[in-house]
Amino acid sequence: MKKTTRDWLRKAEADFRAAKRLFHGKDRLHDQSCFFCQQSAEKYLKALLEEDGLAIPRTHILKDLLALLVVKHAALKPLRRALTFLTRFAVGTRYPGDNASKRQASTAQRAAAKVRETCRTLLGLRPPRRHGPVP
After folding, report:
1. What is the DSSP string of the chain?
2. Is the dihedral of CA 127, 128, 129, 133 positive or negative?
3. CATH number of the domain to which 36 belongs
4. CA distance 34 to 14
């Protein structure tokens, strides 16, 4: 595996852990948890792009990243709906007027976990652990 791919994975894992902590923490920060779920999914997809030797576009629109990857990785196709859902948290909830609910944050957690699991499998990594460093 390429060093840069591992770098993407470390960042994706850190975002995933941050999302979980923000959701389950004392303050339950749903907007921030959703943002980090989106970020984790984005970085996992970009890790796949890196490993495949494809250009990594500067975008937060996850279905655009999916379109680049699905040709080689058909296993990602069922994630389209989850990725579309997560994309809304890249920017919207960072500004006043758009707040994530507890239910949305919970759904975002599940969506990010599916992306994480699928991407790790495609990269030949062992199933994800709840916490811990990326190999």
Report:
1. --HHHHHHHHHHHHHHHHHHHHHHSSS--HHHHHHHHHHHHHHHHHHHHHHTT----S---HHHHHHHHTTT-GGGGGGHHHHHHHHTTTTGGGSTT----HHHHHHHHHHHHHHHHHHHHHTTPPPPPSSS---
2. positive
3. 1.20.120.330
4. 14
| Within-domain flag for 64 | yes
Is residue 63 packed enough to be buried (19+ CB in 10 Å), middle (13-18) or exposed (0-12)? middle
pLDDT over 90 (residue 52):
yes
For position 129, what pLDDT does the model report?
A: 67
Measured CA to CA, the distance from residue 121 to residue 127 in angstroms comes to: 7
Task: Please state the rounded mean pLDDT for residues 31-36.
Answer: 96
Number of folded domains that form the chain: 1
Over residues 69-112, the pLDDT tens digits come to 999 999 999 999 999 999 999 998 888 888 999 999 999 999 99
Distance set, CA 20 to CA 7, 61, 108, 135 (Å): 20, 22, 10, 20
Residue with tokens 């989850």: 82
